[in-house]
Amino acid sequence: MSEKLQKVLARAGHGSRREIEAMIVAGRVSVNGKLATLGDRIEADKSLKIRIDSHLVSVTESVTEVCRVLAYYKPEGELCTRNDPEGRPTVFDRLPKLRAARWIAVGRLDINTSGLLLFTTDGELANRLMHPSREVEREYAVRVFGQVDDEKLRQLSKGVQLEDGPASFKTIKFTGGEGINQWYTVTLTEGRNREVRRLWEAVGVQVSRLIRVRYGDIDLPKGLPRGGWTELTLEPVNYLREMVGLQAETVSKVPLEKDRRRTKANQIRRAVKRHSQVSSTRRSNTKR
After folding, report:
1. Which positions are catalytic?
2. Would you state the pLDDT for residue 147?
3. Mutual orientation of helices 150-158 and 195-202 as an angle, nearest 10°?
4. Are both 88 and 211 inside the same structural domain?
5. Domain range holding 208?
6. Average pLDDT of the chain to the nearest whole number
7. Least confident stretch, 88-102, 115-129, 158-172
8. What is the mean pLDDT of residues 98-110?
């Protein structure tokens, strides 16, 4: 049976469906020497010659791979892109290297937003988690600058009109602060571009700091430093998979519990050190 090209490539670990659709539109994907178009369907077999940016790729290499998920603490200043023409740091710089797969970001956070960002090797999982129909809840800690009254909170809960349609917070809770600098936690079930910031701006309030602290039932791990990552164990991975209708995994690549603490600490230290070196090199090259 044939399937859409972007679905096959996503399942094989070459990106999310959204990323691959963008590649197809940009003319970066070919099938048996012919440029692919959106809507193309294929039957995945070894005889197909599929290329991305002229590089031959496999559509079967990741089908039997174990689904892996990372929880990453994105710092402010990093871009949610694989490569930046200006040489700025990206969220992919710190992640562990893979051989037969690639890390796919589950959604995005803008450059000035920090907090929890999930990565997976399973393109189908990433696509389903991001799809609006799944209504996966996201929670943010927000520091706002401006006068907030009951009427503004009512508008944010009931809904305001943005340029891409109506939007609202599912919940809003005041968590502290004095004067015009106050902290709130908010939740929503969409992942539109800069949605949290735009909602507050719609009622005349500026966001001065934004941190994502939860995605579904996955919390930002306590003790994880900015720029650090940790791999999720089988239970939370299967929670994510079952939430979006995917079959549960039976094995994990995460070390046994007795080794996890030492491994996790070493991974975090290496990730932060490696990214510090990359950032230092980029700054030096920029000055030149």
Report:
1. 110
2. 87
3. 130
4. no
5. 137-215
6. 86
7. 88-102
8. 87
